[in-house]
Design a protein that fits this description.
Number of domains: 1
CATH class: Alpha Beta
Number of helices: 3
Oligomer: single chain
Strand content: 25-35%
Order of helices and strands: EEHHEEH
Number of strands: 4
Radius of gyration: 15 Å
Strand order of the largest sheet: 1-2-4-3
CATH topology: Alpha-Beta Plaits
Helix content: 10-25%
Distance between the termini: 24 Å
Length: 110
């Protein structure tokens, strides 16, 4: 299953830092996000793009995770000639992350 099946995302930027929020469509899926969308997996997913640390901030009350990616925008918006200088496409790229399938619901609600 792809992350995009259970969550949406939004990005922001400041200088050479990008932040990516991942928000569960259904709060029941937050546990799956919490377990499988780690800072380490995000860093590995963006290998070759992110040269700095990736930190994860948890917001269980709103079913969201926020990732801060340092040295992620090729030197920063005003110093980069990259086509996506603000890193807005990073949210779509993160939503391509593979996750395990949701556990199957028990038959007859048991």
């Amino acid at each position: 299953m792809k992350l995009r099946e259970i969550a949406h995302s939004r990005t922001g930027d400041k200088g050479d830092t990008s932040n990516i929020s991942v928000i569960a469509f259904d709060e029941a899926d937050y546990g799956l996000l919490h377990e499988h969308v780690t800072a380490e997996r995000v860093r590995a997913h963006f290998a070759g793009i992110v040269d700095g640390e990736v930190t994860r901030h948890e917001m269980p009350n709103v079913g969201a995770l926020n990732f801060v990616l340092l040295r992620a925008l090729g030197g920063g918006v005003t110093r980069s000639l990259a086509l996506d200088a603000h890193g807005k496409s990073l949210s779509s790229a993160l939503l391509d992350l593979d996750l395990p399938a949701r556990p199957a619901a028990p038959e007859n609600g048991r």
